[in-house]
Amino acid sequence: MKPRLKTVTWGIVLGCLALAPSLAWAQDSPKPKAATTTTYKVGDRVKPFTLTDLNGKKVTLSEFKDKVIVLHFFGKDAADALVPLQKDLIEKHTNDGLVVLAVSGDDESDLAKIVEKSALTCPVLLDRDREVATTFGLTKAPLSVVIAPDMKIVHLLPGTDVKDLRDKVEKVLQSNKKTP
């Protein structure tokens, strides 16, 4: 082998040996984890979240700890279901420790029209990026989530069956009444 070729060959070998540890480190270094989304199910404790209402006020779920909460996820196409929900639950059980929060990812101006037209009295929260809806596994609105005072989910109810929702909410309210 010619001396110059021998020198180049040794240079390549030594260079590879010098780079080997850094290449091995790159292979062993942890890869960035993909973002994961938690999907709640019955029995899970809901983590606090904050959304803005139609008036621009921030509303945090933990404000309602020690109350029975109904999160009602809806789209403007299913807004009509909110009126019987309001009449059936809110007006009857507000003094019993029930809070109903309507949540939508729809446009603010559309929601304002819906609220005005239907005379809703429950807060309407904006989930613009639908991040909160996703954590509850919402694929199609409406979905009602009943949360006990300990912040555990007791029911996930898709659809608009107000009677079924009322029955389930009343059972939760009844089971959470303090006995003297």
Describe the fold and architecture.
- This protein is α/β, with parallel strands linked by helices and 180 residues long.
- A seven-stranded mixed β-sheet has the order 2-1-5-4-3-6-7, covered by helices on one side.
- The protein starts with a helix and ends with a helix.
- It has helices spanning 3-28, 82-93, 108-118, 131-135, 162-176, and strands at residues 50-53, 58-60, 68-73, 98-104, 124-126, 143-147, 153-158.
- The chain has a domain at 50-174: Glutaredoxin (3-Layer(aba) Sandwich), CATH 3.40.30.10.
Task: Give keywords.
alpha/beta, 180 residues, single chain, Glutaredoxin, seven-stranded mixed beta sheet
How is the secondary structure organized here?
Elements: H1 3-28, E1 50-53, E2 58-60, E3 68-73, H2 82-93, E4 98-104, H3 108-118, E5 124-126, H4 131-135, E6 143-147, E7 153-158, H5 162-176
Parallel strand pairs: 3-4, 4-5
Antiparallel strand pairs: 1-2, 1-5, 3-6, 6-7
Helix pairs in contact: 2-5
Detail the poorly predicted runs: 8-36
Mean pLDDT, nearest integer?
Answer: 77
Order of helices and strands: HEEEHEHEHEEH
CATH architecture of one domain: 3-Layer(aba) Sandwich
In angstroms, what is the radius of gyration?
A: 27 Å
By CATH reckoning, the class of one domain would read Alpha Beta
Classify the fold: give the CATH topology of one domain: Glutaredoxin
| Distance separating the two termini | 100 Å
The CATH homologous superfamily name of one domain equals Glutaredoxin
Percent range for β-strand residues: 15-25%
Helix content: 25-40%
Derived structural class: alpha/beta
Number of strands: 7
Sketch the major β-sheet: 7 strands, mixed
Principal-axes shape call: globular
The number of distinct helices, counting runs of at least 4 residues, comes to 5
Strand order of the largest sheet: 2-1-5-4-3-6-7
